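One-letter codes give the sequence; the fold follows as tokens. Both lines appear below.
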Amino acid sequence: LGPPPPPQLHVVATDLYQVTLGWDVPEHHNEVNITGFKCLVNGQQLGGTLAKNVRQTVIDNLKPGNTITVQIVTMTDGKVKDSDVSNAVKVTCPALPPAVSLNQQPSYKKGTVTIAWERPQGSESAPFGEEILYYRVYLDGTWHGEVKACDHCNKNGYQYFLTDLRPGQAYDVTVKAFCGQKKVDPHADTVYVLCDSSMSNSVPVMAPAPPTSPHLRLEGMHDRGIDVTWEMPQQYGDAALSGYQMLRNGKLYGSIIPQDVH
């Protein structure tokens, strides 16, 4: 009666600085009593013994730029030896991608802001598994949306449209770059987890909106009519004030007044 066959280790999923690994246990002799499993990282046991009904484990807090080798051993009650080590899976945490340099582009649609950025310098030479996969956009520190990296945008630049903003309200927009592998081959013997860049510069934005209505003041009365004045109204975003149009009894009166006259 010999030891049980070694488990078959495979990749389940990757996440930010972590990997989920699973294993299958081959058929073994009925008299072999399996008591659990131990996970080896670079030949050293990680944590305590895993229960005999466990078939997955998560390894987290992986360090950027480092690679570990993971294996699993089936443990027995001692009547027979433990299994040999399983097949090895190498898990790499890529080096951190460079931070994004963010800017705002003109937008004149109500409630809409356009931000833009170029592919970060230095990321174009990233090796396989460490290329930037996508970018995440944050509004006031909260996730807002995601932009997938592509060859066209790598050459011509990225744009993101925030279309659900409250006109006239100020926001801060930031972006992070993410690299690694989001989709994995479960049978691969090498895998790259996800990692993120530091946050981009913060860009304060305000969605365009019509200016507030001027408050008229009567300045004088004379035989030619009346004189009125007003203060320049509040302007929002890129919707710049270009002039004023007088109304008399609700109907247009006279030509457009230049914006510097008030």
